[in-house]
Structures are given as structure tokens and as C-alpha cells.
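Quick entry between incubations.
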Amino acid sequence: MTLLEGRAISKSFGGVQALIDVDFSVSAGSIVGLIGPNGAGKTTLFNAVAGAFKPTSGKVLFNGQEITGLPASTICRMGVARTFQVTRPFAAMTCLENVMVAAINRRPEEPRPAIERRAREQLGFVGISELAAVEARHLNVIQKKRLELARALATEPTLLLLDEVMGGLNTQEINQAVAFIRRLRDERGLTVLWIEHVMGAVMQAAEWIIVLDQGRVLMTGAPQEVVNDERVIQAYLGD
Amino acid sequence: MTGKKPTVTAAIILSGMCVLPLGLGIYPQHVLITSLFYVMMAASWNLLAGYTGQVSFGHAAMAGVGAYTSGILAAKAGIDPWIGVCLGTLLAGLLGLGLGSLCLKMGGIYLSLTTLAFSQILHIIIVNEYDVTRGTMGLQVPGLMAEYSKLSYYYIMLAAAAALLAVIYRMIHSNLGMNFRAVQNDETAAASLGVKVLQMRVLAFTVASAMAGFAGALYGHYLLLITPEIPSLDLQFYVLAMTVIGGMGSFIGPIIGAFTLNILAEKIRDYGEYHVLVFGLVALTMARFAPNGLTGIWSRLRRRSTSAARPPAAA
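Done. Structure below.
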């Protein structure tokens, strides 16, 4: 079953065509990698899906329902969560409060202690329980990425959009992160669409790969097909 | 436990405030009453600027809307001042809702610019509509009670300020307050987590405007003479300085700031209007070197003394 679908999505900024007729689909319960060289339009596609801006043309469907151009908050409430490539923590709020913001908007009726418990659970799940009372501005880059993930998970999404979560990790940490993303799918039943530059990681965890190049879909396929494809190699290495 | 402590503190401070004016003369009582007006102004402006990050220059104008609405209704139509206060509050809130819906979508500096323009337009109208407002001469209005008594006014203003602060306290400690702070910190991230950013901003602006209208209306009936000095930029920047110097984004900050500056202003009144200039400079200096104001300096000193007393613990 298709959970997320893009039909002929285009987006231009002034004269620059960032996305051109992008068609793609993500089936429920899968881990899909979104790769491509710098400037291919990966984050732009995320923004168009998550409602950060409206695509110039084309349609986004989530669960068969059109969500094109809806506000980001509405799309989040429908079950789409995202992280940002450059993390955006609420700097002057504690880590616990950061996660609580997500939880209270998912469950506005729930009393404060229950919300707090949920938030702590998420902090524990991403492994930063000990930072609960620390203001987010004091965190290092990796801790900020974990916090952002905890926040996204606290919205209790069905689809998780991850934007380069592996940047700055060493090999061992990457392996842990890959295992973590698998757990998200296997234990929590999340569908994951994942932008990643660390090719080894994405090829390990994803079942399906979408390759973007210069705003267009270059190819889609299983990881093995993609890594061996001439066009993909060219796009990365240049002519 | 944490829920009880602020209530106890508030009760102690409130009872202290109740006995405070008893031994005092008329003049210090007047200073306390005006201070309470400024507490309401600064605390509500802080709700907007300190908690959602929206800088409005129309807060004094909203106080003017409240004061003139209630004053005109009482003076020209003989409507009971208490009903007038409610209507003034309502009108300021509605204007806030209208202005907010119009310009908050644009975000950023547009609210500041629009409210600045609004405040100037209102000022011009009040000065020129002499028949209705008595212009710069000022509009004489009836008091809240048949018999004028400073002490009664003090208790009315104290009750009003306490009620308003209680509402603000509840708000900032509820889900709403959490969403306000999220919007202030990073609205893109807030929206991505399901926070209705625009709704939050309009709500904060509406509530803050209504509160300014409320404070202004009461203040007008205390002064008995409403002049365009209430909806003026002077008063606006005075409130701004109080909030910044006291500590923006903290609950206590504007309260401390309002009392400190207003009492200080009375002390240095002999130097004429220069106190506004001095406060402007102090506010600028504080914004640069102590962005969390007096409350920020206080908590920093306290943290330093406790960490000096204890051996350095592991972070």
C-alpha cells in the first residue's frame, strides 16, 4: 500500500527550477532512501511534502488524501514528522520542554504529568535522558540531532522524514544509527523516508532508493541496482 | 509541591501589598497606584514580546483605546464606569484581533511597523477630534466610586493587577505558554511539530491588547482626566524599558521593572523629562550586557554563590 505519493511535483525559486515533475511513492512500512548530489533538490522535496512551502505545481498525497499546500502544523497532525538538516532546537528551552511541545500538540487533552512521561520516554529512546533538564543551546551537534529525533517521534507519526541524520558520526555510531532506524520501523511500525549522504548507511538500511539529480528523478530501485547504475555513478562523479 | 510554592509566595507578597499603603501619605500611595498600572502594562507587553517574540509598539495605544472608550461612554453617555471598563477591554481585544489577523501573517518586523503606525494614527485622531475627546486638554471622566479615596483605588488596582498576573501565570504555565515559547524560539520547527504558529501569535496579541485596554480603562478612571499621554509613544517606551530592565521573558521581570522604574522616575522628577532619556540608555545597556534584565543578573549571582559554596560537581 502506498503511504506517500508525489505526482509531478515542481518547485521554482525565481528562475531556478529546484524540482521538475518529480513522481515518487513510498509504500507503508518501508525504509526509503532519498539520495543525490548536492543541490539535487532533496531537501526541497522534503519541504514541499512537509508543508514548509507549497510546490509550484503537482500534488502530494498522504494516505490517499491530498495534502498539497496544507500548513506544516496540519500535515504534522496528520502523522508526518520531520527532522531538519541543520537542526532547529528550541534553544532557550530544556530538552524535556522541546519534546513536550511535540507531545502536547499531539495530545492536547492529556494532563501534564502524562505528557512529561511521554517526553521522557522519547528522550530515553534516543539515549539522551540525562540531558532532560539542560537547555537545548548547550547541546553538541549529535545531541541536537538526537533531540530532534525525539521531538519528531513525540508527534507519534506514521511517516518520518529524516534529513541527513548521519552527518558527523563515526563508523561505529553510524552502525548504531542504522540499527536505530531499523528499530523505528520494526518495533514502532514507522515508514521512513530518509535523505542521506553517507551512502554505506543508506544502502544498508533502505529497501528502496530514489535518486534525484538536478531536480529530476534520475532513477528508482533496490539499493543493489542503484549503486551499479551508470547514470547514478555519473551523477555523483561528474562526466 | 511545585504547584503550591508559587501560590504561597504570591499570597505572602499580596498580603504585604495590602498593608503597605496604610501608613503612607497620599503621594506615596499615588506612586504605588501608578506603579500597579505599569505592572499590568509591562506584564502584558511581556506576554507578547517576552514569550512569543512579537514586539508591538501599540501597547500604550491599546491602553488609550481602553481609557477613552470607557471615559467617553461614562462622560458623554453616563454609562457606569465598571461597564465601561469591560467594554474598553473588549474593544482593545477586538482591535488586537483585527490588527493581529491582518499583519501577523507577514511576521517579523511587520507587527512592529503596523502597531507603530496604529499608535500614531490613534494619537492624531484623539488630538484632533476635540468635540469627543477634548484633545490635548484632556477629557474629564467620573471615578469608579462615588467618593474619591486613594486607598480604595489602591486596592482596586491591586486586585486588578493580581488578577491579571494570575491569568498570565496560568497561561505561561499551560500548553499555550509552551507553544508561545516554541514559536518564539523557532517558528519553522514549531510548525513542524504541530504548533499552529499564526493562531498562537494572534491569540497572544489579542490577549495582550485586551489586558492593556483593561489597565488603561482603570487608570483613566483613577486619573479622572484622560489625556493623549496615555496612548503615546513616551508611555510605550517607558513600558518597554520597564520590561527590558526588569527581565523580558520572565514572569517576575516586568513586575520588578515597573516598580523600580516608576519609583525611580518619581525620585528624579526634578531633572525634568530627562528620566525618559536615562531609562532609554539604561535599557539599551541592559539589552546589550544583561539581556535577561535585573532578574537575570539576580539569578546569575545566586547561581555563582551556590556553585562557589559547593565543590564543583560533575556536569
